[in-house]
Design a protein that fits this description.
The complex is a heterodimer of chains A (372) and B (268). With 372 residues, chain A is α/β, with parallel strands linked by helices. In chain A, 48% of the residues lie in helices and 16% in strands. Chain A has 16 helices and 10 strands. In chain A, strands 8-3-4-2-1-5-6-7-9-10 form a 10-stranded mixed beta sheet. By secondary structure, chain B is an alpha+beta fold. Classes of the chains: A alpha/beta (372), B alpha+beta (268). At the A-B interface, helix 14 and helix 15 of A face helix 1 and strand 9 of B.
Chain lengths: 372, 268
């Protein structure tokens, strides 16, 4: 009987990318997810198809599902043979996962977009064998209609890599073990050369009314802002970080090609969701802008990204109360109470001064898209 | 079910948040000469800033047409709380003694009471750059980040905060309040007296403390904060006679509130 891999969070990374990291016949997968409909479908079908973009084509693979469970149905004692647990539920939900992994003895790998989730999981579970991993990949949580017609659980991802803290040993997985220094380098690149421009592309995509990131990149103005943001981050990372410039240039080029890939079907609703999380003080937007300012220049394109995130709205998004706050608060109060900037600090000053103009440009971008 | 419906009390919640934000900014412009005067007792004071901020709150809330019950203009023995229609209950500065002394723990508070229930609220703690608010029936937030329901704990694991009534109606009750404070202090990780009921309750809603309680509190002290705490998932116990603006309250982790309630009933 195959050993199992437990995947908590059956979204884009959990369902679409991680199964590629394991030999096809070696493991079966146990999925834990809070979406009852998805859990039911996974459990009833007992398999689904994933596709990887390789050489401009989609390569399929069948993933065997041993069980799919809601969090309340998951009992660690039933999964004693698990070789590893992967957590990919979104940083906001990590606290709820910690009790699930407390009773397991295998390594736990946090694939969340935030290294602090390792400490959260350790504190919540009382376990030390919890490690950070960086999925360097774009994975969609859906697929084009023709693939969904064959298998409604189909998902697409690109040919990416999983960088994992080298302290996580004993799992037969196609991942790249990394020293702490290498993991820091990969994380810096992921945060500022992937996350920053990727979410800007998504927020601008919502302004031009498209569904997928690659569609947003087809608008010249959007592509110019995203590339501009990438250049701003490259410039400041080269000035401030001791990371080989050739690596940073290669990474940036790779990411821009990803964003424009017509095969990935990367949904804007997924990338742009929870804008307040993307607007955390030290995160991919504000943190990025702060680095540029402290490097001596005003990052006009990243500021556009911040404004577009602040103005983002989508039905059903967890942060939809942002629209309520925009109506209730003056712009200066939004900067201090939503973005948590200090009055008079550089970023607060430039945003307060430039916000009206940026909003005007976003509105003209929207009008231009509607006209076409 | 329509998922895109307008949340309950949307306009009121928006006006409340706008009002405390603007009034909070004004509170930060604290002048040297505050014009401090005593009200019901030497430790129940009002400043010129309380009056200015109350006026700003009224101005912001006026367009909604609901009556506004405000601390500094309410006359205890003649005015009453409208029970037949929604009313805003506002406190320009809860923690005026702290404010007058240059301490940061004070709050600007707006709550909406309807049919005896605190249905929406907003509280600014200006010196700490914090805005607590409810958004319809959808939740409670601190600077836009959702507040989570408190994790269960016992009184012995809880940090608690207390408020005392501005004036004791009798020496026995005051003695009882002190005894209760001592009992809870000894039975918990500590009982604090921060000087603002609204701050206490908002800190409980944010999970920084596990419970807060008070005797003979004024409704305006706690209205906005109790609405926030309830929406955040805290247990809320309130004892208030119909039409009265005076109440006893305990709020926080359900089990801790139950224990505090039993202590409170002994005092009463």
């Amino acid at each position: 009987m195959s050993q199992s891999i437990v995947i908590v969070g059956a979204g884009a990374i959990g369902r679409g990318f991680l199964p590629w990291c394991f030999a096809e016949q070696r493991y079966e997968f146990v999925f834990v997810d809070a979406n009852p409909r998805l859990v039911q479908q996974l459990d009833e079908r007992a398999q689904f198809t994933i596709f990887m973009v390789k050489d401009g084509r989609l390569e399929p693979r069948t993933v065997r599902v041993r069980r799919a469970l809601l969090p309340a149905q998951f009992h660690p004692g039933d999964h004693g043979d698990a070789a590893a647990v992967f957590v990919n539920v979104g940083p906001r939900n990590v606290d709820r996962v910690a009790p699930l992994v407390a009773g397991l003895s295998c390594p736990v790998i946090s694939c969340e977009n935030d290294p602090a989730t390792v400490d959260q999981l350790r504190a919540g579970s009382g376990r030390r064998e919890i490690y950070f991993a960086i999925p360097d990949v774009i994975a969609s949580n859906t697929a084009p209609a023709e693939l969904l017609a064959q298998d409604p659980l189909s998902v697409i991802c690109e040919n990416g890599q999983l960088f994992v803290d080298e302290a996580a040993a004993g799992v037969d997985c196609d991942w790249v073990p990394c020293s702490r220094q290498e993991l820091d380098k990969q994380w810096t690149a992921k945060l500022y050369l992937h996350n920053t421009p990727h979410c800007i592309a998504a927020y601008l995509g919502s302004w031009v009314g498209v569904q997928y990131v690659h569609e947003a990149m087809q608008f010249p103005t959007v592509a110019a802002i995203v590339k501009g943001a990438m250049t701003e981050m490259l410039t400041s990372l080269k000035l401030r970080w001791n990371i080989p410039h050739a690596f940073l240039d290669w990474y940036a080029e790779k990411e821009l090609a990803r964003f424009s890939s017509r095969l990935l079907f990367d949904p804007i609703s997924r990338v742009a969701r929870e804008p307040l999380r993307k607007l955390e003080l030290e995160g991919r937007l504000l943190g990025a802008a702060q680095i540029c300012l402290s490097s001596g220049f005003v990052p006009a394109n990243i500021l556009t990204g911040i404004a577009s995130a602040l103005l983002f709205q989508a039905d059903g998004d967890a942060d939809n109360h942002l629209a309520f706050m925009r109506r209730a608060l003056r712009p200066s109060a939004l900067l201090t109470h939503v973005l948590n900037l200090r009055k008079g600090e550089a970023l607060e000053c430039v945003l307060r001064e430039q916000l009206p103009n940026i909003v005007g440009r976003l509105e003209s971008l929207e009008r231009g898209a509607q006209a076409t | 079910m329509n998922d895109h419906r307008t949340p309950l009390w949307e306009r009121e919640a928006e006006a409340a948040l706008r009002a405390v934000s603007i009034a909070g900014e004004l509170a930060l412009e604290r002048p040297e000469a505050l014009g401090v005067r005593a009200k019901e007792s030497a430790r129940d004071i009002v400043t010129d800033m309380d009056l200015r901020i109350e006026s700003v709150l009224r101005e912001q809330l006026a367009p909604l047409g609901h009556p506004v019950v405000a601390e500094e203009s309410f006359v205890m023995d003649t005015d009453s709380l409208p029970e037949d229609r929604p009313a805003f209950v506002v406190d320009p500065i809860d923690g005026t003694a702290n404010y007058a002394s240059g301490l940061s723990l004070y709050a600007v508070s707006v709550g909406l009471i309807s049919a005896g229930c605190l249905v929406t609220g907003a509280v600014a703690i200006p010196a700490h750059k914090e805005l607590f608010f409810t958004h319809g029936d959808a939740g409670a937030y601190l600077n836009g980040r959702a507040l989570k329901p408190p994790a269960p704990c016992t009184l012995s694991q809880a940090l608690v905060a207390a408020t005392f009534s501005g004036r004791a109606s009798s020496r026995d009750i005051r003695t009882g309040e002190f005894r209760l404070f001592g009992q809870i202090n000894d039975a918990s990780r500590g009982c604090l007296r921060l000087g603002s009921a609204a701050v206490n309750i908002c800190y409980v809603a944010a999970g920084r403390m596990q419970a807060a309680y008070g005797f003979d509190a004024k409704l305006w002290d706690v209205a906005g904060a109790l609405a926030v705490a309830r929406q955040a998932g805290c247990a809320v116990f309130v004892e208030r006679a119909p039409g009265s603006v005076v109440l006893d309250y305990a709020v926080g982790v359900a089990g801790v509130v139950t224990e505090i309630q039993s202590f409170m009933s002994e005092v009463r």
